Amino acid sequence: MKRILLMILRNLIYVPNMAIRLFRYASHPEKYPEKERYEFLQGICFKANKGGNVTIQANGLENIPDKDGFMFFPNHQGMYDVLALFTVCQKPLSAVSKKEVKNIPLLKQVFQCMEAIFMDREDVRQSMQVILEVSKEVQNGRNYIIFPEGTRSKNGNQVGEFKGGSFKAATKAKCPIVPVALIDSFKPFDTKSVKPVTVQIHILKPLLYEEYKDMKTTEIAEKVKTRIVEVIEKNK
User: Fold this and answer.
1) pTM above 0.90, yes or no
2) Do residues 37 and 116 touch, judged by C-beta distance below 8 A?
3) For the domain that residue 111 is a member of, what is the CATH number?
4) What pLDDT, in 10s, does the model give residues 186-220?
5) What is the C-alpha separation between 79 and 1, in angstroms, rounded?
6) Which of 51, 90, 151, 157 is 20 to 30 A from 189 via CA?
């Protein structure tokens, strides 16, 4: 919370205009091109990072697929994760998020602006509908972020269990699965410090449909997790 306040205070001159635009985009995202909305969110991220003493160290940007219609599968460390990914990925991203995010001010508007899809993990039918909707959107060329742990880790750079069900949308869409390793992404928003912090983002080589089409989703989950853990252990 302290760093969020620092970000706001150091960008106070921009806050009114950014807030007005954010709420406008969030209220009627369908009225504005996705690229326009995404570039606006990237601008917010840039100013927030600078004001909040956050540096992003990006690795593996060449592994982002050239063609749209892919999915990022990062480990989940905290509320800052999505903003970190926005900072480094020049291709518009949306996300699948738990329904509880709808109740967090500003973060709610950010997710509405990017037309994120909210999932009720307690409702099996609704969760299945989300999987089908995401798979169709990915097939139509949209790019998504899904956190296969389902919830953020509370143990820093330790990675939790990757759930096989998180990969069903990708297998249905037959799209590239892009593992992403986040390191120290919990520090900006999930600690009380405002000291300078560097967040590492490692975008790994995509897993193509031809490579995973004969695998069970639990096997895909384990393979993706193993690759992410190896990178985190090497670089943390």
Assistant:
1) yes
2) no
3) 3.40.1130.10
4) 999 999 999 999 999 999 999 999 999 999 999 99
5) 11
6) 90
